[in-house]
Amino acid sequence: MAADTKTVRKIFLIATEESGDRLGASLTRELRERLGEAVRFEGVGGRAMQAEGLASLFPIEELSIMGLSAVARRLPTILRHIRTAAHAALQAAPDVLVIIDSPDFTHRVARRVRARDPSIPIVNYVSPTVWAWRPGRAKVMRKYVDHVLALLPFEPDEYRRLQGPPCSYVGHPLTEQIATLRPSPEEQLRRDAAPPVLLVLPGSRRSEIRHHMAVFGEALGLLQAQGVAFELILPTMPHLEALIAEAVKHWPLQPRIVVGEQDKRAAFRIARAALAKSGTVTLELAVAGVPMVTAYRAGQLEAWIVRRRITSASVILANLVVGENVAPEYLQEECTAPTLAAALRDVLVDSPLRQRQLAAFARIDDIMSTGAQSPSACAADIVLAVARDAAPVPR
User: Fold this and answer.
1) Of 330, 331, 326, which is closest to residue 347 (Cα–Cα)?
2) How far apart are CA 90 and CA 118, in angstroms?
3) Short-list 225, 292, 212, 272, CA closest to 252
4) What region, left, alpha or beta, does residue 211 occupy, with left being phi > 0 and alpha being psi -120 to 50 degrees?
5) Which of these, 175, 150, 180, lies nearest to 365 by C-alpha position?
6) Stated pTM of the model
7) Which has the closest alpha carbon to 211: 282, 292, 309, 303?
8) Computed from CA positions of residues 150, 67, 61, 44, in that sequence, does the dihedral angle turn out positive or negative?
9) Are 148 and 141 within 8 A, CB to CB?
10) What phi and psi, each to the nearest 5 degrees, are found at residue 125?
11) What is the pLDDT of residue 312?
């Protein structure tokens, strides 16, 4: 029997990147398991959310851009989609609007919705990096966000310190994927064997690959010239494979390129160390127990803007989560081949740097735990509690 329309929950979600799309799909699935036919979803999402039944207002690939110059070129499209999403949310008049990551887009939609209809509750899933730069955003968010769902355990304290909206740690999706990142006994033997497996992770965006590949290749060539033996693996995604293959042609040694998430996780399970660009991948490596050297380069204008606003002691997620700067980070002009090669040599052997990282990463399960609940279940609890006319929902 169809659910009484008076009791149907209407939830509007907006996710414009693949990572947010996966979070949105898990949340949608959890809510449908609880509410059955008494829930309806509308909004913006990618393949994962569409597989859960969401009809996206537009393809999120149209917003897959990075870098100031790229944004400037696509600004008319971005602004049009912001207007489209805000208008659709207002027309839907949902019980709750859930904006997922991508704050440059989703927060503009949220502000428009709040200005036109303050009665629509708004939940922000994935905190902007207020703890790293532009901390004043936290206080401003109180005007248009009712609750923040944090993926990182230190973020609720940061929101209290910065006088932002209520914030709850709901858990990181990586906590549900530990088994796929950690080695079996056989894989541990390969991780400990010679020559050691060294991962190279230059980034998942074309601009990141463009900035990192040359210096990474030069650093690895120096390491090899110094007599350090290693097996090189470079995980990437299908849409970047051709770009990566072209870039490594100029490297003094050729990596084994593995494609797709499954092969990437398999490489993590046998790796002894990694050279990675800063980002979520550093937290994946920490969960996998892989010591790392981290680096980041960006365009000069973008780097100048970020550097003037950065406020945290580290930009590396692994460091921030464990509460120690255990993974060395080399940004912009510090990201040079000799510096990277020297640090990599250190983490490949049983050095104090390597031991310090391993000891810190051993604590990560306790630090990131959400108890018996999954992250999507924790998120669903709060979304339903914040929704209009919220009432306890049977589990």
Assistant:
1) 326
2) 10
3) 225
4) alpha
5) 175
6) 0.85
7) 303
8) positive
9) yes
10) -95, 115
11) 56
Task: Determine the pLDDT at residue 239.
Answer: 86
CA separation for the pair 65, 208 (Å, rounded): 11
Cβ within 8 Å of residue 255, ≥6 positions away: 200, 232, 233, 234, 248
Collect all residues with Cβ–Cβ distance below 8 Å to 96 and sequence separation of at least 6.
9, 11, 12, 120, 121, 122, 123, 383, 386, 387, 388
What is residue 194's DSSP assignment?
A: S
The pLDDT assigned to 39 comes to 95
Q: Which residues of 283-314 are buried (b: 16+ CB within 10 A; e: fewer)?
A: bbbbbbbbbbbbbbbbeeebbeebeeeeeeeb
C-alpha separations of 12 from 86, 108, 353 in Å: 10, 15, 46
Overall size of the chain counted in residues: 395
The CA distance from 98 to 82, in Å, is 15
* 115 within 8 A of 86, measured Cβ to Cβ: no
387: tokens are 């929704």
Is 287:178 a contact under the CB 8 Å cutoff?
Answer: yes
The rounded average pLDDT for each run of 10 residues, N- to C-terminus, in the chain (395 residues) is 62 93 96 95 95 93 59 78 96 97 94 97 95 88 98 95 96 92 97 97 87 94 96 93 93 94 96 94 96 84 54 78 94 91 96 97 96 94 89 42
Task: Give CA–CA dist 45/49, Å, rounded.
Answer: 5
Q: What is the largest CA-CA distance in the chain?
A: 72
Q: Which two tokens stand for residue 70?
A: 């790229």
Beta partners for residue 70, in sequence order? none
Contact between 330 and 293 (Cβ < 8 Å):
yes
Distance CA 306, CA 75 (A): 20
Tokens of 344: 């990599």
CA distances from 393 to 151, 241, 379 (A): 23, 45, 14
Task: For residue 338, give the nearest of 225, 222, 232 by alpha carbon.
Answer: 222
Angle between helices 206-225 and 337-348 (to 10 degrees): 70
104 contact partners, CB below 8 Å, separation of at least 6: none
Q: For the chain, what percentages of helix, strand and coil (3-state, to nearest 5) are there? A: 50, 15, 35
Tokens 């899933």 -> residue? 125
What CA–CA distance (Å, rounded) separates 319 from 317?
5
